[in-house]
Amino acid sequence: MEYGGPHAPYAALGSERCPPVKILLVSLRLALAGVSAASLASAGARAGEACGLCSQSIVTNSSLADCFLEQYDQLAKEDGTAIAVDLSDCGSRGIVEALPSPNAAVVEPDTQFMLSRTQLDCLKKKLEEPGIVLDPSVKIELGSCG
Q1: Spatial distance between the Cα atoms of 46 and 131, rounded to a whole number of angstroms
Q2: How far apart are CA 125 and CA 108, in angstroms?
Q3: pTM to 2 decimals?
């Protein structure tokens, strides 16, 4: 049986209605769509690491810093790229806060904030630095943490 239609070269390879070239083009389109989706997902993961909701700095004191360090192991186990830190239950633990100097503006410590994993580790390192003065409160920059 000899076929002489417009798809004659494809008759031996498959159906005349769906020549292999058309199948190849559809496969290429699906592959490109998959690659595009994968690159968007990885870009989203990198953007998540940047964490647009995460704090660039926090204000803390010695009591809250101690509480953060006590909670660090549990916080580090949390899933996701952004970690919600809630120190509102820590309070001052009955410690009388140091009075600020008359010329200094009183800055309230942050008890709730979001951190990336990198910032979480960075904050821990900064709070463990020898000689850090935390009272009455200190602003810790986290923008350089990554």
Answers
A1: 34
A2: 22
A3: 0.60
